[in-house]
Design a protein that fits this description.
- The protein has 156 residues and is an alpha/beta fold.
- The protein has one domain: 3-Layer(aba) Sandwich (Alpha/beta knot).
- 44% of the residues lie in helices and 22% in strands.
- It has five helices and five strands; from the N terminus they run βαβαβαβαβα.
- A five-stranded parallel sheet has the order 2-1-4-3-5.
- α3 crosses α5.
């Protein structure tokens, strides 16, 4: 199952980019034998500054047809890492070809796109900068693959 992160904004060189690149490499390495990956990041940008309403169609176009659509949203479900791993593995086991995690811009994801999501995921009640959310998501994807592989990376 191919995994996509679809996000608003371009991530420049720096510590966040370094972390993301590291976790993407780790995920791809670990996930390959599990039928997970590759992990691809799609960045979209609303150059006219139209906010959530203008970002929504850009995000939607970047999601592969038929993908499980997961919106990262503060109102979403809070999961433990093992629950997230089980969910990811479940989509894979159902034969889903793609899963796309959507991260909105500074104002979040437009309600019409959120309504189309198959699942909504929250990293807690706090709001996180969208660039940091990418780092957290890539780490959790790697952690999920590690859990599914039986690796000691995740300690209970």
């Amino acid at each position: 199952m191919r995994v996509h992160i679809v996000a608003v904004g371009r991530l420049r060189a720096g510590p966040e980019r370094d972390l993301i690149d590291d976790y993407v490499t780790r995920f791809d390495r670990t996930g390959r034998s599990l039928g997970l990956g590759p992990l691809t990041i799609h960045e979209v940008e609303d150059k006219k500054g139209g906010g959530m309403k203008a970002e929504a169609p850009l995000l939607a176009r970047a999601v592969p047809d038929g993908a499980v659509l997961v919106a990262l949203d503060e109102r979403g479900k809070v999961m433990t890492s093992p629950e997230f791993a089980d969910q990811l593995g479940g989509w894979r086991d159902q034969g889903r070809g793609d899963v796309a995690f959507v991260i909105g811009g500074a104002d979040g994801i437009a309600s019409n796109l959120r309504a189309q999501a198959d699942a909504k995921l929250s990293f807690g009640k706090m709001v996180w900068p969208h660039m940091l959310a990418r780092v957290m998501l890539t780490e959790q994807l790697y952690r999920a693959a590690s859990i599914l592989a039986g690796s000691p990376y995740h300690r209970v």
